[in-house]
């Protein structure tokens, strides 16, 4: 039980920290729009950027919503991870089509295609430990 609890706490802390990235970036994008890049864009592009920032914010908040009972939130965690990975694949395609983006965007790509799947695998491990410990199917 102590092993499962320790691993659960570490997972919760890791997810809480990593989910700060989409929450902060999403909130900033919603509030300030394209100002982050300094590029002038059309009103429609600005609106789309804020919409996507809102989705990013929502994904981060949903990851935070798994924290209290992370050991039983496997379905939600996997769905959120799938959304993040699909977004990362879109970013990867963009990298191939348009070239290397800023260092922040490359960092985002690493979080989307490496960190999120690793956290998802870890969540599954914790869920399995919980199931073994408490005889939950």
Automatic annotation (TrEMBL):
Highest taxon, organism lineage: Bacteria
One Pfam family hit: DUF4345
Matches recorded under InterPro entries: DUF4345 (IPR025597)
This protein's record includes keyword Transmembrane: yes
Keywords: Membrane, Transmembrane, Transmembrane helix
Transmembrane segments: 49-67, 79-97, 103-122
Identification of the protein by name: DUF4345 domain-containing protein
Organism this protein belongs to: Microvirga lotononidis
């Amino acid at each position: 039980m102590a092993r499962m609890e320790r691993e659960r706490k570490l997972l919760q802390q890791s997810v809480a920290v990593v989910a700060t990235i989409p929450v902060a970036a999403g909130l900033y994008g919603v509030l300030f729009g394209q100002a982050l890049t300094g590029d002038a864009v059309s009103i429609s592009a600005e609106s789309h950027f804020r919409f996507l920032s809102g989705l990013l914010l929502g994904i981060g908040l949903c990851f935070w919503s798994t924290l209290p009972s992370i050991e039983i939130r496997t379905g939600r965690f996997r769905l959120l991870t799938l959304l993040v990975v699909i977004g990362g694949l879109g970013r990867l395609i963009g990298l191939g089509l348009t070239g290397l983006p800023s260092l922040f965007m490359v960092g985002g790509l690493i979080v989307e295609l490496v960190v999120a799947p690793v956290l998802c695998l870890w969540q599954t491990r914790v869920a399995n430990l919980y199931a073994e410990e408490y005889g939950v199917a």
